[in-house]
Write a structure and sequence with these properties.
This protein has helices at 10-21, 49-58, 71-81, 92-104, 119-124, 136-141, 152-186, 199-218, 228-235, 265-311, and strands spanning 24-30, 35-42, 64-66, 85-88, 110-113, 127-131, 144-146, 248-251. By secondary structure, it is an alpha/beta fold. The protein has three domains: 10-42, no CATH class; 49-151, HAD superfamily/HAD-like (Rossmann fold, 3-Layer(aba) Sandwich); 155-237, no CATH class. It is elongated and about 100 Å long. It is a multi-pass membrane protein.
């Protein structure tokens, strides 16, 4: 409005600030160079968002909010759900750069989004999680798609993945111990003490090993997603209401500088060799063009000599 030479009164400015503190985006409307209305727009926070954020924090994960909204609205939303770190007024390219920065710091990044502007960051993250009710672009760019519009499914997917990895490790250790004990017996190492394994026993033991691992993996079919009541009981009194003073807000990407890559000695030698070869090639091309132009120059001199003789 100021850019269009419209004065915003202090009371209107205070009303806008108050709406932004409550998590709304204030929009001014002017008709014929006169301020006539103010519209407050708010994205309703999902009822399960606070529980999902606190559960992720209790799992040892760091939760960061990245949004293109203004800093005041982002701070208010983060305080409602318990997020402590916010990047506000960011562009889609800023989201990608922030994900890349976290990855360069050695962190495994999971990105949750549902919009078109989230799709580049979803593709860049180690694990991209898209909401099933979001845009098609975000769904195509993500690695995991949540069918329902429920943020608790993010907690369930992470919990299920941890249980799957734990089951894989248990199966691996069990199979390793099983083979370390069974192979020496089948090879006859303990034959002097009378411990011998018949061929049919070895076949049965090998089949039992495979069946036991498969049955152990099939136990994951009994997995049930933790409900909101279970998560509430698990958190107990550890949840505390967030305040605006606890939230740190960064505008854009802040003072993020991309470090220049350090080249090893071998890389420097290769780059210098390539530059030398390219310069030699360019010199050769210029020499070839000079040689090809010599006949034209010779013919031009001959024509000049003939003209001089005719003139004389």
């Amino acid at each position: 409005m100021k850019r269009n030479c419209l004065q915003v009164r202090p009371d209107i400015d205070e009303a806008m600030i108050e709406h932004e503190r409550r998590g709304r985006t204030a929009v001014l409307v002017a008709v014929d160079n006169t301020l006539c209305a103010m519209i407050a727009i708010a994205d309703t926070v999902k009822p399960e968002a606070e529980l999902a954020v606190h559960t992720l924090l209790s799992m040892g994960l760091e939760v960061v909010l990245m949004t293109g909204d203004n800093s005041k609205t982002a701070r208010a939303i983060a305080a409602q759900v318990g997020i402590r770190k916010v990047f506000a007024e960011v562009l889609p390219s800023h989201k990608v750069a922030k994900v890349e920065q976290l990855q360069q710091a050695g962190k495994i990044v999971a990105m949750v989004g549902d919009g078109v502007n989230d799709s580049p960051a979803l593709a860049m993250a180690d694990v991209g999680i898209a909401i099933g009710t979001g845009t098609d672009v975000a769904i195509e760019a993500a690695d995991v798609v949540l069918i329902r519009n429920d943020l608790l499914d993010v907690v369930g997917s992470i919990d299920l993945s941890k249980k799957t990895v734990r089951r894989i490790r248990i199966n691996f250790v069990f199979a390793l111990i099983y083979n370390l004990v069974g192979i020496p017996i089948a090879a006859g190492v303990f034959l002097p003490i009378g411990l011998v394994l018949q061929p049919w026993m070895g076949s049965a033991a090998m089949a039992l090993s495979s069946v036991s691992v498969v049955l152990s993996s099939l136990l994951l079919k009994c997995y049930t997603k933790p409900t909101a009541e279970k998560l509430e009981a698990r958190l107990g009194n550890s949840r505390r209401p967030g305040s605006l003073s606890d939230v740190s807000v960064h505008i854009g990407m802040g003072e993020m500088r991309r470090p220049s890559p350090r080249l090893s000695l071998l890389d420097r030698i290769v780059n210098y060799s390539r530059a030398s070869i390219n310069s030699l090639r360019s010199d050769k091309h210029s020499l070839n063009s000079l040689v090809l132009s010599e006949p034209d120059k010779h013919s031009l001199l001959v024509e000049e000599a003939r003209c001089e003789e005719e003139f004389c």
